[in-house]
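Hi V.,

You were right to ask for the full record rather than a summary. Here it is.
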Amino acid sequence: MLDYKKVELAFINDAPIKIELKTRLAISAGDLFDMFEDPHGWAWASIKSVVWETPQPFGEGTTRSVDIDGQGKVQERFFLYEHGEHMAFRFEQGEMKAVSALVEDYAVKSTGVNTCELTWTIGMELRGVLKILTPILRGVMTKQFSGMLDKLTESVNKPSV
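Predicted structure:
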């Protein structure tokens, strides 16, 4: 297992790669967070499994392990967790060799009884020689994360039969 830099939430503002994505979802903010808490609710993000290592209620200091398809396992530590509103975490340790630091921030704003807006911000720094490729990989990763968010939006917003 690799150790990742112990960055704080503010890292996201100055990260060498910063990706900010937004979408409107046909789900309540609370139900969206219920989905985030479901170990099986992350297929849209190419995550094979999620194991929460901290019991509920989740909050600052909560940890979980995720198995990312094609990337291996990563342990995450949450900076904050406000159900239905906001969660953010960093990578602590893992098998993802290309990354030296990563923070994800999920800010959710309720826009109606069964609708919300999600702002997903990712900040990362690449490891070693890959740092040289940051300008190129920024675009590649933006496209990759955008595709994931499209999958979430499609799965949540598809009309019920």
